[in-house]
Design a protein that fits this description.
Largest sheet: 9 strands, parallel
Strand content: 5-15%
Shape: globular
Structural class: alpha/beta
Number of helices: 16
Number of strands: 14
Strand order of the largest sheet: 9-8-7-6-5-4-12-11-10
């Protein structure tokens, strides 16, 4: 074979090899692309028609029906906060200066005789009485259609320590979801306290440091925990979704962003079809820094601000919601004063969220504070002499003897109906779609409403001016129902 023919043959062989390699490349590329597309389809938010869902920032039921959510938190049921039991000086007992779970454990060890009643037995009896089916019926009749259930990872220690899920660990979450289904109320599970403190707040069982973010194992197990709950609850039509972490305080926003991204990916990968609720860092209203590429995310800031500065902050939130067309829900909102000031200031502030199509979940449904002027619960239990004796012993660390009537104490935790807290009830009723907007006709009328049964309100003139200014935003809605004014269902 002459050199020319050899060269031509070599070129042909090289072309055949290149063609083969190109074919292999294209095949692999197509298959990889197909795998990626299949995985993306798997991870897409695809809720069933009868699940609560969102589309373009709007909450829907039965796939196409807009729904406005009016809710309350069931705080103090599955995780304790001292001030909601009326412990200590109410003016000092706040969410930042309060009993942590460790503080409660120490106090219980001092007052309980394990031969008579262990701490586990106490907690079980307390929970069995503090919230019952009757409370869900009451909320249904009040117009509530979503409840947020704060709980603690400490109830699932068997999982975080040994990756074991015990059936008894789910008793109260199961009860809540069953009662929600019975009364057609959506249920949102909120991890209020992670296995390590996710914030510096006492309700995260913190002693001043958010150690969760430094512990990779705790972060990863928390995501695994949510996927385990997804397997258990995914088929529940009245599950609103999972609130991944309450009021996080990540030292670096990238830590929070990664946690949310990894948790959402893991939940969608196991087929979770419900909404996923995420909160901004440091209890802010800034949702822009935690935006996620998932159509089933609800951004859930908390809002306790009432005043000019707070109004400007909420305007920034409204602008972000409009810019990104994402659903937003205020997961906690409330006021420390159960009086005319709270009713009239809160209601017009909450109307502003209504106007933007932002649902509100009120904090809190129930407490054990006997002074109405220092409570924001809709209801309470019996805060009589036996209960006060229990609280005093708990605060002082005085052991209760065998003559203490525990059965009566546990019954005192049951809700007393009807409620004697009309102002807070009025707020909830006032933000349901069928309520009528009643705008003040004059500054004097606003002042009169403020002063009614509110003799302790300071700066009355300034406070009256504030609620008068708020009310004027809704002059065009005076006499109309909320659903007519804001286009809600």
């Amino acid at each position: 074979m002459d050199s020319g023919r050899k060269e031509k043959h070599l070129i042909n062989c090289m072309l055949l090899v290149l063609a083969f390699l190109l074919g292999v490349y294209i095949f692999v590329k197509v298959e990889n692309t197909k795998d990626i597309q299949d995985e993306q389809k798997l991870l897409m938010y695809r809720p069933r028609d009868n699940f609560l869902q969102v589309n373009n920032g709007i909450f829907l039921k039965n796939k196409r029906e807009p729904i406005y959510l009016t809710g309350v938190n069931l705080g103090q049921w599955l995780e304790l906060e001292g001030y909601l039991w009326g412990m200590g000086d109410h003016n000092k007992q706040t969410y930042q200066v309060n009993y942590s779970q460790d503080d409660f454990d120490k106090a219980f060890s001092q007052i309980l005789d394990p031969k008579i009643l262990s701490q586990d037995q106490f907690i079980q009896s307390y929970r069995d009485n503090f919230v019952t089916e009757k409370d869900f019926l009451y909320l249904k009749n009040l117009g509530v259609n979503i409840v947020r259930i704060p709980f603690s990872a400490a109830d699932f220690n068997s999982f975080f320590e040994r990756q074991e899920l015990r059936e008894e660990d789910f008793t109260y979450l199961d009860n809540a979801l069953r009662w929600c289904a019975q009364y057609q109320i959506y249920c949102l599970f909120d991890l209020h306290a992670a296995i390590l403190p996710q914030s510096t707040f006492s309700h995260a069982n913190s002693q001043g440091e958010a150690t969760f973010w430094k512990n990779k194992d705790a972060v990863e197990k928390t995501i695994l925990f949510w996927t385990a709950l997804a397997h258990r609850y995914n088929d529940s039509a009245y599950l609103a979704g999972f609130d991944l972490l309450n009021e996080p305080q990540a030292p670096d926003i990238s830590d929070l962003q990664k946690f949310y991204a990894d948790a959402v990916f893991s939940l969608r990968k196991v087929g979770f079809e419900h909404l996923i609720f995420v909160q901004p860092n440091n209890v802010s209203l800034d949702i822009e820094s935690i935006l996620l590429n998932d159509k089933g995310i609800v951004y859930e800031p908390h809002y306790y601000g009432f005043g000019t500065k707070a109004r400007s902050e909420s305007e920034a939130l409204f602008a972000q919601k409009e810019k990104y067309h994402v659903p937003v829900m205020i997961g906690e909102v409330g006021n420390w004063a159960n009086d005319a000031w709270a009713k009239n200031s809160d209601i017009f502030v909450l109307y502003r969220f209504l106007r933007e199509g932002i649902p509100i979940v009120y904090w809190n449904y129930k407490d054990m504070i006997d002074d109405n002027s220092k409570s924001f619960g809709l209801v309470r239990g019996n805060t009589g002499s036996l209960y006060q004796h229990f609280i005093q012993s708990l605060e002082l660390g005085e052991k209760l003897d065998e003559h203490f009537n525990w059965d009566i104490l546990f019954k005192s935790f049951q809700t007393e109906f009807p409620s004697d807290r009309p102002y807070v009830e009025d707020i909830i009723r006032g933000i349901t779609p069928t309520s009528t907007i009643d705008v003040f006709g004059s500054f004097e009328e606003a002042k009169e409403a403020l002063m009614a049964q509110s003799s302790t309100t300071p700066y009355r003139e300034r406070s009256a001016q504030y609620i008068w200014d708020l009310s004027q935003e809704f002059l065009n809605c005076n006499g109309k129902t909320i659903q007519d004014c804001f286009g809600l269902k």
